[in-house]
Structure formats: C-alpha cells, structure tokens
Amino acid sequence: MTRPNRFYLTGTDTDVGKTVTAAVLCRELGLDYFKPFQSGTSPTTDSETVRRLAPEVKVWPEAVVLQRPASPHASAKDEGRVLRPEDVVLPPAEKLLVEGAGGWMVPYGDDPLWWQSDLVKHLGLPVVLVTRTGLGTLNHTMITLRAMKADGVEVAGLVFVGDEHPENERDLAKWGGVPVWGRVPKVASLSGPEDVPGVVWRDPRI
What we know:
Rossmann fold, 6 helices, alpha/beta, 8-stranded mixed sheet, 12 strands, 206 residues, 29% helix
C-alpha cells in the first residue's frame, strides 16, 4: 500500500501521544501540519507543540481555537459557539497531516449532534490511527478500528507509541486489517527538536 500524502491523524484516546506522533511524521515525511479545532490553550496548543518540536514544519493556523481543554462540543458551548464541519477548509498543501481532537468518538457538536467522523468525511481524507503499545491497547485499538470502519472512513494505517511490545504489535498487525506503519519510541523528555525520536518503520513498502 502506498502511503497517502494527505491524511487525518486520530488516536485511541486522549494523551496517547498523537501530537508528538504528528510532529515526528511531519518531520520525517515532509508534511505540513494543520489542527482544525483546538480545545484548550494552556499550557500550550498542539500547533505550538509541533512548532517547538519540529520547527522546520509548516504549521497552518487553526480554523477554531477554544479555551477549555474538553471535547470540542463542550468547549464551544462555553463560548457560545457552534462548530460545523463547513468551518474547516483544508490548506493548499500538497503534503498535509490534519490532527483531530481526542479519541475517535469525540462529539464536535450536539445541536445537531455530529462527530469526528463527519469532519473526516467532509475533508475527504484517509485516517491514520495512533495507539499505545502496552497493556489495554488490544481493546482500545480494535474498538476504535471497528468504529472507524462502521463510520465508513478509509483507514490508511496504524502507528504505535511507546516501548517495543512485540506481542501486541504482532497481534494488532494480524487482526487490525490495516497496514502498520511503525512505532514512535517513548522518550523521557521532549524539551526540543533534539529530543524528538524517529519512527521505527515496520514495513518499508509503506
């Protein structure tokens, strides 16, 4: 399978390492970065994190920035705003990573109710899923992959984050039904670009 030049990055849950993975992938693959809906600005936004970890990467402005670190529908309600998929227009970048908010089943609006999958369908992008290597990842990853496939989106790949765990990586490669791109190692500190790990690519064909 050929790796897409433009894709949407999501995770199995909050704090899985999605933004660090975004910075790593943008750096290694020469991708621009775009975060459509930012929920939470303290201590930093995801776009600011990518700029800090990968200063060579082109970071496009967010479509919407919300103050509270919560699901987008809740943060928007705090500020009297209504989010819509139509609020997002993709930047004119040939190679682009679009980072979503939180895990896959995050609501972006509740009146009317709409989900992250509605944004992905609006953007017309394939999805790459970020997941942990360790305990609990079989359940979280398989549930998320089933939900994504039920939502009718194209899943282009899986990226692990954490210490090497051959058994979990093997089982999810076998059962997931999507290409495993590789693994981003866990590091103790990420103070700057010099601390950013590289991807341990699993399959050189993708």
